[in-house]
Write a structure and sequence with these properties.
Layout (H helix, E strand, L loop, with lengths): L1 E11 L4 E5 L5 E6 L3 E5 L2 E5 L3 E6 L3 E6 L4 E9 L4 H6 L8 E2 L3 H15 L6 H19 L14 H13 L7 H7 L4 H12 L3 H19 L4 H7 L5 H12 L3 H7 L1
Antiparallel strand pairs: 1-8, 2-7, 3-6, 3-8, 4-5, 4-7, 6-9
Length: 259
Protein backbone atom coordinates (compact mmCIF):
# COMPACT_ATOMS: atom_id res chain seq x y z
CA UNK A 1 0.00 0.00 0.00
CA UNK A 2 1.22 3.50 -0.84
CA UNK A 3 0.02 6.25 1.51
CA UNK A 4 0.17 9.81 0.18
CA UNK A 5 -1.26 11.65 3.18
CA UNK A 6 -3.20 10.91 6.34
CA UNK A 7 -5.07 12.85 9.00
CA UNK A 8 -6.22 11.76 12.45
CA UNK A 9 -9.03 13.64 14.20
CA UNK A 10 -8.83 16.52 11.73
CA UNK A 11 -11.09 19.39 12.78
CA UNK A 12 -12.55 21.91 10.33
CA UNK A 13 -14.96 24.78 10.92
CA UNK A 14 -18.69 24.67 10.24
CA UNK A 15 -18.25 26.22 6.77
CA UNK A 16 -15.95 23.42 5.58
CA UNK A 17 -16.80 21.98 2.17
CA UNK A 18 -15.03 19.70 -0.33
CA UNK A 19 -15.94 19.01 -3.94
CA UNK A 20 -13.19 17.55 -6.08
CA UNK A 21 -12.39 14.44 -8.07
CA UNK A 22 -10.35 11.63 -6.56
CA UNK A 23 -7.06 11.27 -8.43
CA UNK A 24 -6.63 8.45 -10.90
CA UNK A 25 -5.59 5.27 -9.09
CA UNK A 26 -6.14 6.84 -5.67
CA UNK A 27 -8.52 5.91 -2.88
CA UNK A 28 -9.58 8.29 -0.11
CA UNK A 29 -11.10 6.94 3.07
CA UNK A 30 -13.17 9.34 5.19
CA UNK A 31 -14.39 8.31 8.66
CA UNK A 32 -16.62 10.94 10.26
CA UNK A 33 -16.54 11.88 13.93
CA UNK A 34 -19.29 14.48 13.56
CA UNK A 35 -22.41 14.89 11.47
CA UNK A 36 -21.69 15.51 7.80
CA UNK A 37 -23.59 16.08 4.58
CA UNK A 38 -22.57 13.91 1.63
CA UNK A 39 -23.59 14.35 -1.99
CA UNK A 40 -23.77 11.35 -4.31
CA UNK A 41 -25.11 12.18 -7.76
CA UNK A 42 -28.43 13.96 -7.28
CA UNK A 43 -28.83 12.83 -3.66
CA UNK A 44 -27.66 15.01 -0.76
CA UNK A 45 -28.20 13.68 2.78
CA UNK A 46 -26.91 14.18 6.32
CA UNK A 47 -25.17 11.28 8.05
CA UNK A 48 -24.05 10.76 11.65
CA UNK A 49 -20.63 10.36 13.22
CA UNK A 50 -19.31 6.88 12.57
CA UNK A 51 -20.00 6.96 8.84
CA UNK A 52 -17.29 5.77 6.47
CA UNK A 53 -16.94 6.50 2.77
CA UNK A 54 -14.22 4.97 0.61
CA UNK A 55 -13.85 7.09 -2.51
CA UNK A 56 -12.18 5.69 -5.62
CA UNK A 57 -12.41 5.09 -9.33
CA UNK A 58 -11.96 8.74 -10.28
CA UNK A 59 -15.30 9.68 -8.73
CA UNK A 60 -16.20 13.06 -7.32
CA UNK A 61 -15.97 13.41 -3.54
CA UNK A 62 -18.38 16.01 -2.31
CA UNK A 63 -19.20 16.59 1.35
CA UNK A 64 -19.46 19.38 3.91
CA UNK A 65 -19.95 20.18 7.57
CA UNK A 66 -23.50 20.04 8.90
CA UNK A 67 -23.93 23.26 10.93
CA UNK A 68 -21.13 22.31 13.31
CA UNK A 69 -17.35 21.75 13.13
CA UNK A 70 -16.50 18.85 10.83
CA UNK A 71 -14.29 16.21 12.47
CA UNK A 72 -12.90 13.19 10.65
CA UNK A 73 -10.07 10.74 10.12
CA UNK A 74 -8.87 10.30 6.54
CA UNK A 75 -6.28 8.53 4.38
CA UNK A 76 -5.26 9.14 0.75
CA UNK A 77 -3.65 5.96 -0.66
CA UNK A 78 -3.37 3.58 -3.59
CA UNK A 79 -3.29 -0.21 -3.72
CA UNK A 80 -1.41 -0.82 -6.94
CA UNK A 81 1.15 -3.06 -5.24
CA UNK A 82 -1.58 -5.08 -3.49
CA UNK A 83 -4.35 -5.13 -6.07
CA UNK A 84 -5.34 -8.77 -5.57
CA UNK A 85 -5.52 -8.32 -1.81
CA UNK A 86 -7.56 -5.13 -2.14
CA UNK A 87 -10.00 -6.66 -4.62
CA UNK A 88 -10.49 -9.73 -2.41
CA UNK A 89 -11.96 -7.53 0.33
CA UNK A 90 -14.86 -6.45 -1.93
CA UNK A 91 -14.99 -3.01 -0.35
CA UNK A 92 -17.92 -0.76 -1.17
CA UNK A 93 -16.82 2.39 -3.04
CA UNK A 94 -18.38 5.86 -3.17
CA UNK A 95 -21.25 5.09 -0.80
CA UNK A 96 -21.72 5.92 2.91
CA UNK A 97 -21.70 3.00 5.32
CA UNK A 98 -22.10 3.12 9.09
CA UNK A 99 -19.23 1.25 10.74
CA UNK A 100 -19.84 -0.78 13.87
CA UNK A 101 -16.47 -0.31 15.60
CA UNK A 102 -15.53 3.31 15.03
CA UNK A 103 -13.14 3.55 18.02
CA UNK A 104 -11.06 0.63 16.77
CA UNK A 105 -10.96 1.99 13.21
CA UNK A 106 -9.98 5.44 14.50
CA UNK A 107 -7.24 3.90 16.65
CA UNK A 108 -5.76 2.19 13.60
CA UNK A 109 -5.77 5.46 11.67
CA UNK A 110 -4.09 7.19 14.62
CA UNK A 111 -1.33 4.56 14.54
CA UNK A 112 -0.99 4.91 10.77
CA UNK A 113 -0.68 8.68 11.15
CA UNK A 114 2.01 8.35 13.83
CA UNK A 115 3.99 5.89 11.75
CA UNK A 116 3.56 7.91 8.54
CA UNK A 117 5.27 10.93 10.09
CA UNK A 118 7.96 8.91 11.90
CA UNK A 119 11.53 8.26 10.78
CA UNK A 120 11.55 4.62 11.86
CA UNK A 121 13.64 2.24 9.78
CA UNK A 122 10.67 -0.11 9.69
CA UNK A 123 8.23 2.62 8.67
CA UNK A 124 7.32 1.17 5.23
CA UNK A 125 6.65 -2.34 6.52
CA UNK A 126 4.72 -1.05 9.52
CA UNK A 127 2.51 1.15 7.32
CA UNK A 128 1.83 -1.71 4.94
CA UNK A 129 0.79 -4.01 7.78
CA UNK A 130 -1.34 -1.35 9.46
CA UNK A 131 -3.12 -0.47 6.21
CA UNK A 132 -3.90 -4.12 5.51
CA UNK A 133 -5.29 -4.48 9.03
CA UNK A 134 -7.41 -1.36 8.58
CA UNK A 135 -8.85 -2.48 5.25
CA UNK A 136 -9.61 -5.97 6.56
CA UNK A 137 -11.34 -4.46 9.59
CA UNK A 138 -13.40 -2.19 7.34
CA UNK A 139 -14.42 -5.22 5.32
CA UNK A 140 -15.48 -7.04 8.50
CA UNK A 141 -17.40 -4.13 10.02
CA UNK A 142 -19.56 -3.07 7.14
CA UNK A 143 -17.72 -1.37 4.27
CA UNK A 144 -18.49 -4.22 1.87
CA UNK A 145 -20.40 -4.27 -1.39
CA UNK A 146 -23.04 -6.60 0.08
CA UNK A 147 -23.90 -4.46 3.12
CA UNK A 148 -26.79 -2.05 3.46
CA UNK A 149 -26.25 1.65 2.88
CA UNK A 150 -26.68 4.11 5.75
CA UNK A 151 -30.30 5.09 6.06
CA UNK A 152 -31.39 8.56 5.00
CA UNK A 153 -35.08 7.91 5.75
CA UNK A 154 -37.55 10.65 6.76
CA UNK A 155 -36.99 10.39 10.54
CA UNK A 156 -33.24 10.78 10.19
CA UNK A 157 -32.96 14.52 10.80
CA UNK A 158 -35.22 14.36 13.87
CA UNK A 159 -33.07 11.61 15.36
CA UNK A 160 -29.94 13.66 14.67
CA UNK A 161 -31.52 16.64 16.44
CA UNK A 162 -32.57 14.51 19.41
CA UNK A 163 -29.09 13.05 19.79
CA UNK A 164 -27.66 16.54 19.76
CA UNK A 165 -30.07 17.54 22.56
CA UNK A 166 -29.06 14.50 24.60
CA UNK A 167 -25.37 15.34 24.38
CA UNK A 168 -25.94 19.06 25.03
CA UNK A 169 -28.16 18.44 28.05
CA UNK A 170 -26.77 15.47 30.01
CA UNK A 171 -28.27 16.87 33.23
CA UNK A 172 -31.83 16.15 32.08
CA UNK A 173 -33.67 13.00 33.16
CA UNK A 174 -33.80 11.33 29.76
CA UNK A 175 -35.89 8.17 29.42
CA UNK A 176 -37.21 6.12 26.52
CA UNK A 177 -40.73 7.52 26.69
CA UNK A 178 -39.65 11.17 26.69
CA UNK A 179 -37.21 10.61 23.83
CA UNK A 180 -39.79 8.75 21.74
CA UNK A 181 -42.28 11.55 22.35
CA UNK A 182 -39.69 14.12 21.28
CA UNK A 183 -39.57 12.58 17.79
CA UNK A 184 -43.26 11.53 17.69
CA UNK A 185 -42.62 7.78 17.52
CA UNK A 186 -43.91 4.79 19.40
CA UNK A 187 -41.59 3.52 22.12
CA UNK A 188 -40.71 0.25 20.36
CA UNK A 189 -40.20 1.78 16.92
CA UNK A 190 -38.06 4.57 18.36
CA UNK A 191 -35.79 2.13 20.20
CA UNK A 192 -35.39 -0.01 17.09
CA UNK A 193 -34.69 2.92 14.78
CA UNK A 194 -32.30 4.67 17.16
CA UNK A 195 -30.16 1.54 17.49
CA UNK A 196 -30.26 0.94 13.74
CA UNK A 197 -29.16 4.49 12.90
CA UNK A 198 -26.54 5.10 15.58
CA UNK A 199 -25.38 1.57 16.37
CA UNK A 200 -26.13 1.98 20.08
CA UNK A 201 -29.26 1.87 22.25
CA UNK A 202 -30.82 5.19 23.21
CA UNK A 203 -30.20 4.72 26.95
CA UNK A 204 -26.59 3.67 26.40
CA UNK A 205 -26.18 6.84 24.34
CA UNK A 206 -27.64 8.90 27.19
CA UNK A 207 -24.95 7.48 29.49
CA UNK A 208 -22.28 8.11 26.85
CA UNK A 209 -23.42 11.73 26.65
CA UNK A 210 -23.15 12.13 30.42
CA UNK A 211 -19.65 10.64 30.51
CA UNK A 212 -18.43 12.74 27.57
CA UNK A 213 -19.67 15.88 29.34
CA UNK A 214 -18.03 14.75 32.56
CA UNK A 215 -14.70 14.31 30.77
CA UNK A 216 -15.02 17.81 29.36
CA UNK A 217 -15.76 19.35 32.78
CA UNK A 218 -12.95 17.41 34.46
CA UNK A 219 -10.49 18.58 31.81
CA UNK A 220 -11.49 22.22 31.73
CA UNK A 221 -12.64 23.15 35.26
CA UNK A 222 -11.77 22.69 38.93
CA UNK A 223 -15.26 21.54 39.87
CA UNK A 224 -15.43 18.89 42.57
CA UNK A 225 -16.39 15.33 41.65
CA UNK A 226 -19.72 15.88 43.39
CA UNK A 227 -20.37 18.99 41.29
CA UNK A 228 -19.39 17.17 38.08
CA UNK A 229 -21.79 14.35 38.93
CA UNK A 230 -24.64 16.81 39.51
CA UNK A 231 -23.90 18.76 36.31
CA UNK A 232 -24.12 15.51 34.35
CA UNK A 233 -27.45 14.46 35.80
CA UNK A 234 -26.36 12.06 38.53
CA UNK A 235 -28.16 12.18 41.87
CA UNK A 236 -25.57 9.89 43.44
CA UNK A 237 -21.84 10.65 43.34
CA UNK A 238 -20.92 7.00 43.92
CA UNK A 239 -23.06 5.90 40.99
CA UNK A 240 -21.36 8.48 38.78
CA UNK A 241 -17.89 7.32 39.84
CA UNK A 242 -18.71 3.64 39.22
CA UNK A 243 -20.20 4.37 35.79
CA UNK A 244 -17.32 6.66 34.81
CA UNK A 245 -14.70 4.04 35.71
CA UNK A 246 -16.62 1.31 33.90
CA UNK A 247 -16.74 3.29 30.65
CA UNK A 248 -13.48 5.28 30.74
CA UNK A 249 -11.38 2.68 32.55
CA UNK A 250 -10.19 5.00 35.31
CA UNK A 251 -11.65 7.10 38.10
CA UNK A 252 -12.69 10.73 37.51
CA UNK A 253 -9.90 11.95 39.81
CA UNK A 254 -7.20 9.99 37.99
CA UNK A 255 -8.61 11.02 34.62
CA UNK A 256 -8.26 14.67 35.61
CA UNK A 257 -4.68 14.19 36.82
CA UNK A 258 -3.69 12.55 33.54
CA UNK A 259 -5.08 15.31 31.30
Amino acid sequence: MNIYSVGFHSVYDSSYSVSREVGDGHFILIVTKSRAVFEFGDVTSAYPAGTAVLYGGGNLRSYRADSEPFVCDWIDFDSRNERDFFDSLELRLNQPVRISDCDFISGLIRNISSEFYSISSRRVNMLDNLMKTLLMKLSETGVRRDTAQVSSEPHYSSLIDLRSKIYRNPQLKWNVDSMAADVNMSRSYFQHLYSEVFGVSCMTDVINGKIEKAKEILSETNCTISQVASMCGYDNEEHFMRQFKKIVGTTPTRYRKNR
